[in-house]
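> Could you send the Nucleoside triphosphate pyrophosphohydrolase prediction when you get a chance?

Sure thing. Input:
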Amino acid sequence: MDDLTHLPPLDRLRAIMAALRDPATGCPWDVEQSFATIAPYTIEEAYEVADAIERQDWAELKGELGDLLFQSVFHARMAEEAGLFDLDDVATAISDKMIARHPHVFGSESNAKSAEQQVADWESVKAAERAAKARGGVLDDVALGLPALMRAEKLQKRAARVGFDWPDIGHVVDKIAEEARELAEARDTLPQDKIEEEMGDLLFVMANLARHLKVDPETALRRANAKFTRRFAYIEAALALHGKRPEDSDLPEMDALWDRAKADGL
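Output:
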């Protein structure tokens, strides 16, 4: 294959993708992939970008953004092969969308607006775009492939824009208490599928509480996961000093170490 180092970076990446997908000389694995088989990798790469940001690992972020960019190039190449669109079309579409959604930057509207007003304007533009696509229902284009917690928050936000929402946080907290009681009752009286349903109801309302508090539930849960990991690692390290592992300990001892980790700011 010809040397590609002389090409501009994005052109080089496109050429690499085309070579990988070449039916005669490409990589067999890359050649046999489809939109459906690549989609899980795309989602995974997006999460790895978020993970690098959470850890503030900027060197790793550069690599993860490259991996995510490669996913877009991969999908665009498959689309080009199918005669659907190419990477230039993708770039043109997002450029057009950003210009249309920012009239206060690229148009005649004043940009002397609060961030809140700009968000409201953004949502109005998106609503008009959805109407132009002739989507039937308010919730129709909330992507099915989103993580469940993120999708719950987006469904509720969409419903709230047409007035289907509790007026204040107090009502949400009351609903959480109600759902928690129903879950406790289900545990003792109902089959497993109903327990799962009640658990889903409780999680759904928790996502609603996050929205009312202007907290991203995915971010909040990722941070809670990271905190749990740090504190449990502290427990393991403390036990190891005495030649023990968690399975050699008991709950009171590990709880005390957990409290120590918490006191140490972990």
